[in-house]
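Curious: why this fold?
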Amino acid sequence: MNYHRRAFTLMELLVVIAIIGILAAMLLPVLSAAKKKGAQAACINNQKQLGIGMKMYVDDNSATYPGIASRHYGFQTSDWIYWRTNTALYPSFQKSPILTSIPGLSKPSLRCPLDTSDADRLSYDYGSDAYGPYPFSYSFNGYGLDADGNNLGMSSVISSSGGVVSVSLFKEGMVRSPGNKIMLAEEPGTLSSWDSPNGTQLISDGRWIPSDFIGGTGDTLTVRHGGKADVAFADGHVQAVTPDFGFDTNNNLSSQ
């Protein structure tokens, strides 16, 4: 007795392919969202580790916060992060005070896993300081000094003018409501709309100063995490906030 195996018809194959396509279309957004959530979890962990390093540095340095790490004030050995890439002139980032403050702990990554492109950093006009682009995702709350020489915090500031060096230390006890004050900010690494809320501001150094404080010409938080940025607060906790939260001086003027 002969048995003939029945083959699939073309119509049946097309139906199967269509079903597979529908299932894939349904799963891809879920997988993409899960990947982004995983990246955000890693970003939050980075900042928690940096927050631990900051706390350990402060405890080891008479309750004093490290330097501002900005272009404006130039390189200082007290800078919280050594970011300039010319190691013939400047120490490598591995020697940064915050990273060396956490022996025995895993060193945090200094970039968010979603901050993967350097294209805009490399083409951005930083002026003529020859420091190069800032290669990391995170910056330190550092308004610097006001017209009267007051340090608006939270970073210590060393500046020089006419050969005179001035030092303005910022102490841990000067931070009011530390659970509500941003210490480490996550800034845009590209000018893309998914990263930079206005498409014009890019992280340029280790100093974060909200744009609304200086007439819209300062820094903004990224929106790469579903319209929010991960930030570490002075009490050590990390959470995602909107750029508007960062613009509010109640959340970042440390001594206010």
